[in-house]
UniProtKB/TrEMBL annotation, chain A:
<protein>
    <recommendedName>
        <fullName>Trm112 family protein</fullName>
    </recommendedName>
</protein>
<dbReference type="InterPro" id="IPR005651">
    <property type="entry name" value="Trm112-like"/>
</dbReference>
<dbReference type="Pfam" id="PF03966">
    <property type="entry name" value="Trm112p"/>
</dbReference>
UniProtKB/TrEMBL annotation, chain B:
<protein>
    <submittedName>
        <fullName>S-adenosylmethionine-dependent methyltransferase</fullName>
    </submittedName>
</protein>
<dbReference type="GO" id="GO:0032259">
    <property type="term" value="P:methylation"/>
</dbReference>
<dbReference type="GO" id="GO:0008175">
    <property type="term" value="F:tRNA methyltransferase activity"/>
</dbReference>
<feature type="domain" description="Methyltransferase type 11">
    <location>
        <begin position="77"/>
        <end position="176"/>
    </location>
</feature>
<dbReference type="InterPro" id="IPR029063">
    <property type="entry name" value="SAM-dependent_MTases_sf"/>
</dbReference>
<dbReference type="InterPro" id="IPR013216">
    <property type="entry name" value="Methyltransf_11"/>
</dbReference>
<keyword id="KW-0808">Transferase</keyword>
<dbReference type="GO" id="GO:0008757">
    <property type="term" value="F:S-adenosylmethionine-dependent methyltransferase activity"/>
</dbReference>
<dbReference type="Pfam" id="PF08241">
    <property type="entry name" value="Methyltransf_11"/>
</dbReference>
Length: 62, 248
């Protein structure tokens, strides 16, 4: 995902802001990292460039 | 309850993503009529009433957005983007496109399509639930939510997803919503119902998909109950359509 997308993303649970933590980037593209709910503390992984912003109860168990 | 009817839509589409995506090359003419009513041949096979109902809502979106009509900061959202064919259509009318889908495997096909076709702007892809969108309120100028609503269950989640659409739309924003209709050739019913429609993979394996088939009156009622305001409706090619704007 592009870092510039942060201005329109929010926590799916309570619509509060997300904080971005980057492990790997390629220019302005975030490849690996996580989005963290600033209020809920929920961690949403960014894997292979795509953030998984599903509510925690809809995530894969695998 | 039969296990097949309980398969989450996410798992279903992760399973069939590659084959499903390969069979979905072109945007629906109804979506093109909504986004680009002047597209000529792409919408010419629609009947005139449907074209009027769909286009009447959308043409203004792109030209009247108070923020940035079609410019670099305008935002398009495709909820249930699948292989990205309609996100690609949004790229023609807005500066930034977000494609959201519950299935990571479908998102992978959307990314590949964007790369292969050099879609510009390239859609931003998110794995997300239609009933709890991770998108800020009032952030979206134009949205499409097509052929996705009917996969959610029960009704409360479908209505919740429509309320989410209302929340994310900017005050001048518009969206196109569609779902399979009882008017479709394969059904013989006058009122809405839940069913399972299999997807057959090339090897012959059948993967069940949940659908709620809408009758047009029920479709409009669910939209109104969500807080969205209906601007126009149509039944075309066996689908219910509504052009909507956000509620107060």
């Amino acid at each position: 995902m592009k870092e510039s997308l942060m201005d329109i993303l929010c926590d799916p649970l309570d619509k509060s802001d997300l904080d971005l933590e980057v492990d790997e980037r390629d220019g302005d593209e975030i490849i690996e990292g996580r989005l963290i709910g600033s209020v809920t503390g929920e961690v949403y992984p960014i894997e292979d460039g795509i953030p998984n912003l599903l509510p925690p109860d809809m995530r894969d168990d695998e | 309850m039969d296990e097949s009817t309980e398969t989450p839509v996410k798992r279903t589409y992760d399973r069939i993503a590659e084959h499903f995506a390969s069979t979905r090359a072109y945007p629906w003419p109804e979506v093109t009529a909504f986004l680009r009513p002047d597209a000529g041949d792409a919408v010419s096979r629609l009947d005139a009433d449907a074209t009027d109902a769909l286009a009447g809502g959308a043409a203004p979106v792109v030209t009247r957005s108070t923020r940035d009509a079609g410019g670099p900061s305008s935002v398009g959202l495709d909820v249930g983007c699948g292989n990205g064919r309609h996100a690609e259509s949004l790229s023609a009318v807005v500066g930034r496109v977000v494609g959201a889908d519950v299935s990571a495997e479908l998102l992978a096909t959307a990314r590949q399509r964007g790369e292969n076709r050099r879609t510009d702007p390239r859609p931003h892809l998110l794995q997300a639930d239609a009933a709890s969108l991770p998108v800020c309120s009032d952030a979206v100028d134009v949205a499409v939510y097509v052929a996705t609503l009917h996969h959610l269950r029960p009704r409360s989640r479908r209505v919740a997803s429509l309320s989410e659409l209302s929340r994310v739309l900017a005050p001048d924003g518009r969206a196109l919503v569609s779902a399979w209709a009882t008017a479709h050739d394969r059904f013989d019913a006058d009122s809405g119902f839940d069913t399972t429609v299999p997807w057959t993979l090339p090897g012959g394996e059948s993967v069940p998909r949940f659908y709620h088939i809408y009758d047009p009156t029920e479709f409009a009622a669910d939209i109104r109950d969500s807080g969205l305001v209906v601007v126009g409706t149509a039944v075309s090619s066996g689908n219910c359509y509504a052009v909507v704007e956000p509620g107060e």
